[in-house]
Amino acid sequence: MSIEETIALAIVYAERHLGLDKDDETYFTNLLLGHFGLTAPYEGPIDPARAEKMEVPDEIVDSIVDFDVKVRLMDIGEATRDATWVMGVLSPRPSQVSRVFAYLKANSSAKATEYLYDLMVKNDYIQKSKVDKNLRWVASYQDGPALEISINLSKPEKDNKDIAKLAHAAPSGYPACFLCKENVGFAGSATHPARENIRVVPVRLDGGQWYLQYSPYVYYSRHCIVFYEKHVPMAINPHILRCLFDFVDQFPHFFIGSNSDLPIVGGSILNHEHFQGGGHEMPIMKSKVRAFLPAPGKSTSLAVLDFYDTVLKVYGPSREEIVSIGSQLIAKWRAYDDPKRGILSHDGEGLHSTVTPIVRKVGDTYELYLILRNNRCTKEFPDGLFHAHPEYHYVKKEGIGLIEAAGLFILPSRLLRQGKEAEECVEKKLSFEECLALYPDLKPFAPMLRDMKENGASVRQHLSEVCQRILRNVGVYKDTPDGQEALRLFVKGALE
Ligand SMILES: [Zn+2]
Is there a contact between 253 and 361 (Cβ–Cβ < 8 Å)? Predict the structure, then answer.
């Protein structure tokens, strides 16, 4: 497809899918012709039906990138950012999107979030055909609740030590981070994604100004991010709990949670206050009650969930009661020491205990999930006592954030290649040494190769087993009579 035809198609596509006004057709055609250094538009007709049935703009984006690389001699990064510029120009302005969102939200917040999601797919901010290539399966177990596992092919793996450094770094550059609202319309660079096509909408939470956007990675259905207007570090406190409850009151079709505010047990961005939510039912939300514990208040229930990490569920119709009980549990947990189980709330290196809170609304019942976390590193476990233990790092070394702690594992893309290499080695009946000669980075994969050879496990079965064990590592109170009694004692003391 010629670049002239691409421009003509892009204009008709934007009319059909991005709300571009037909009266602006000449204006946008000329803008794009000028941008690409062209002197005359495409002469042939564009069949509106062709643009109508395009579910994603891949055809347009690919053609622009191709032209930019071949004719304008850009590198692939520049060319990709240029295509993002085009999709941004053809998208409605941020203020228009906010107005439509607010108009729809007045009647149905679900319609409003669907409008924004559809716009983000149609303007290529969410690159849906790439995201759809991610591998995904449900891992079932004889001895515990099911988990969900995904091999993500689009996001690079981050190291915990890098994340920790980032958390303490002074904001530098512009925008200060990938979440700041200054990303809207930003041209990007080799190290920062182009964001001309992102749209964020304002949301008020507990008296503060926040913004809702979608995640370009789409780890699960309608994976959204809610970020604070200012670039301030994450902190878990009663205000944050009230923000989460305000969110589900406005968007009851979405759950919302905050990553912990400490490295290893938090997410990949600690220096900008933000939440993650969406329209997915996480494994943690399907898990059964292991034990009920007495809770203060008239209408609130408190339960320990039968899950791998340590989860308290506080639920009932009164959000005030739940926030009050939740805040008390969080404050007490932050200062609680249980040395027999390796739980030290703080030491010379700083604070170690925190929680990962997740909130959702089911009918009139509010549910608060508090996952107790501790990020202590010991001599034996230098990457974290309650983190994936070293023998599992070949599968996952990154911090265990809220998505994983809630039972959905996002594994790095290298595992797809390494899994195939392992399969090949097993098929050819190679010895471990022969495997390494062929694929040196399979060195830490000895347990996987053994499991495949001796037990006939598939790559997926093996990864599923490892994820279950990692989440057990994350649990601060193990599922043993002793561990559960200790948890009961903590909760009892915290609520007295
Ligand atoms: Zn920021």
Answer: no
Cα–ligand 1 centroid distance for 334 (angstroms): 26
The two tokens of residue 196 are 């001309």
- Alpha carbon 306 to chain centroid, angstroms: 24
Calculate how far, in angstroms, residue 325's C-alpha sits from the geometric centre of ligand 1.
31
Q: Distance between CA 139 and CA 492 in Å, rounded?
A: 34
Ligand 1 centroid – CA 454 distance (Å):
49
Q: For the chain, which domains are there?
A: 3-90 (no CATH), 135-409+480-495 (3.30.428)
pTM > 0.90: yes
Cα of 210 vs centre of ligand 1, distance in Å, is 12
Average pLDDT over residues 302-307: 98
Which is nearest to 375 in space by CA: 346, 397, 412, 338? 346
26 exposure class (CB count in 10 Å sphere: 0-12, 13-18, 19+): exposed
Distance 74 CA to ligand 1 centre (A): 29
Among the residue ranges 86-90, 162-166, 233-237, 334-338, the one predicted with the least confidence is 162-166
What sign does the CA torsion over 415, 417, 420, 426 have?
negative
| Residue-level pLDDT at 170 | 41
